[in-house]
Amino acid sequence: MNLRGLTLNGKGALLVISWIPVAMCFNENVCYIAKIEGKSMRPTLNPNDITHTDWVLLWKWGAKNASNLHHNDIILFKAPTNPRKVYCKRIKGMQYDTLHTRHPYPKDVVNIPRNHVWVEGDNAFHSTDSNNFGPISTGLVIGKAIGVIWPPSRWGSNLSETIGREDARMNGIVV
Ligand SMILES: *[C@@H]1O[C@H](CO)[C@@H](O)[C@H](O)[C@H]1NC(C)=O
Ligand SMILES: *[C@@H]1O[C@H](CO)[C@@H](O)[C@H](O)[C@H]1NC(C)=O
């Protein structure tokens, strides 16, 4: 990364400092940097992939354990249909949740089995997600996206500001 000529405003400088402890833990098994491709997570990630693509910091430690995953976390996981493909989506349902699905899922309501999660892209119209391939095993999870680290203009992006469609869970409702 070439940092020459980079001007930081006060907010930018502050964020650089706040990222240092995170950068120090960099390790293939703990933290990882991943490039986000495509527009399925727009506007949260890659708001404009013509000018740039986002790189995110990924937290890998314990991410396959369902008790470390939470509703609305953004995760990277291996595609259930092709383990060489990696998807980045938001968790919209946890194990044991009951959810309203969306087209083209064959059923209107789905129960998420143990150690599975339901994932969707924030950009519903350009997303291949659980509505296509169903709930995914947490064993496919590679890590949790915890922040955008590149480009600098995207530092401090709040990954929870837009969360895709509203809560689709219907827990407690007998269907
Ligand atoms: C998953 O995480 C929970 C809570 O952090 C812990 O109690 C449990 O032992 C973990 N399971 C595995 C298989 O590591
Ligand atoms: C990010 O946005 C969410 C939803 O608007 C808000 O609840 C949360 O406090 C924000 N986090 C930060 C660090 O600003």
Automatic annotation (TrEMBL):
Similarity remark = Belongs to the peptidase S26 family. IMP2 subfamily.
Intracellular or extracellular location(s): Mitochondrion inner membrane
Q: What is this protein called?
A: Mitochondrial inner membrane protease subunit 2
- List, alphabetically, the InterPro entries matched: IMP2, LexA/Signal_pep-like_sf, Pept_S26A_signal_pept_1, Pept_S26A_signal_pept_1_CS, Peptidase_S26
Domain of life, per the record? Eukaryota
Which residues does UniProt mark as catalytic?
40, 89
Q: State a single Pfam family of this protein.
A: Peptidase_S26
Q: Which organism is it from?
A: Lachancea dasiensis
Q: Which residues form the Peptidase S26 domain?
A: 17-98, 107-150
